[in-house]
Amino acid sequence: MDAGRLIEITDPGDARIAEFTSIRERDLTGRQGQFIAEGTVVLSMLAKAHGGSGPVRAEKLLLLKNRVAGLSDVIDQFPADVPVYVAETAVLDAIAGFHLHRGVLAVGSRAAPPDLASLVSQLPDNALVLVGCGISNHDNIGALFRNAAGFTADAVLLDETCCDPLYRKALRVSVGSVLAVPYARKESVETVLGTLAEAGFEIWALSPSGTVEIGGIKPGRRVALVMGTEGEGLPAAILERFHSARIAQAPGLDSLNVGTASGIALYAIARAMGRLG
Amino acid sequence: MDAGRLIEITDPGDARIAEFTSIRERDLTGRQGQFIAEGTVVLSMLAKAHGGSGPVRAEKLLLLKNRVAGLSDVIDQFPADVPVYVAETAVLDAIAGFHLHRGVLAVGSRAAPPDLASLVSQLPDNALVLVGCGISNHDNIGALFRNAAGFTADAVLLDETCCDPLYRKALRVSVGSVLAVPYARKESVETVLGTLAEAGFEIWALSPSGTVEIGGIKPGRRVALVMGTEGEGLPAAILERFHSARIAQAPGLDSLNVGTASGIALYAIARAMGRLG
Questions:
Q1: Quick check: helix, strand or coil at residue B73?
Q2: What is the pLDDT of residues A105-150, one digit of tens each?
Q3: Which of A273, B5, B6, B20 has its CA 20 to 30 A from that of A133?
Q4: What range(s) does the tRNA/rRNA methyltransferase SpoU type domain occupy (chains A, B) (predicted)?
């Protein structure tokens, strides 16, 4: 790494790092298309995404000075026109508005997600997609993406009532998978499922009242798994119109966490489709 | 519900509700055997546990005044000698030290967990136990218990380096399962696994480098599943000494979240053991 590349910040009010000020509050407002990446693993995913042909770009890095040496390999993956700002702990904490344990931040941006129809039209013949309906919890959205990546899903299709996966915490919980897995998030769940059905997808809604146990299904060539929220679950109209599956478990308990349930169901389906080697 | 049972608190400094003051900070100190239960579902689990023959007792409830009517069924499950304190929002927030969305709190206590040998000796012939090694994250501990309950595990055995499952957040994430599933947490992982091996348990350590894919194992009559941390995983000595299993997934990615991985593995094993109906 060329040490001349590092730009030292000593004033928390410096305009060059304005995107990082009070990032907790800022996160709540959700800046369209721009996002904060946190931690080494997500930074590394950002570097990969920036180098690819996808919609994600890195804008700038802000690092704790004493972390720089250990991060030189990752820094080198960013082209020279991505500025790397460094600061001491006190300055960094004053910028962020709280104590940053890790001291690794970046700002990235991505073009508006593709529209649903064009994303679906680009999916391979043998495709697995994960659909989220009404998932507003940032941890759960992050978990959906982490599991989608882990179990080879080709895309994540969120309905318009799901929260933005670019939120700082969702991105962190996804371990950066939000930057790697294609997704859409503009349409109603009816439109998403209608588009998938027209494209020949077999649609499985997951629900504690599902008619088939998930480990017993024989999935087709193109499969969509639909996840609802923990409390209300999926709308009855969806459960009636499409296939529904349940995860066998101890009777009389609260259902599983959405992230865990999506992991179990994706694992079972991807395995039955022969996608997991 | 007898409204005469409700005791109104108007002074945040009232000694009768001292256990609830500044519960966030208090949580960090971890009071031996005493715990804070939060939310309706956990309160309901506390009522059940208090009524049972186990080590868990409810000491007192503190509720937001406008939540009382909706909670009368749950309140009635606690015997009359468990005091029910009520307060308005401003008083309750001043007591807790932050804004409580839900307004449902209780203090409970439990006797010291049983020692490992006596807990293991009480397990049924056909048993499934979950072992945690080095799990220090409160969310992950909570997830282990939630999944253990969901997939019929008879006990959770934590090594001495795991965090206390009675922490407020672990208890909340477990949706109260910490109060229902028997557990121990005093010994080293070597002692835990040695005790289980002597008691005839087949021991499966879960690891990305495991030799058998988890969906393909034919488990015996008594099975223990061992989970390590996300970063370091399980010690090599454990992976060498016992059976090891992996969850098939996309190559080259960070491993799954511990909670999700425990859910997938417990589901696969409990299903193969014929425990899930």
A1: helix
A2: 999 998 887 899 999 999 999 999 999 999 999 999 999 999 999 9
A3: A273
A4: 128-267
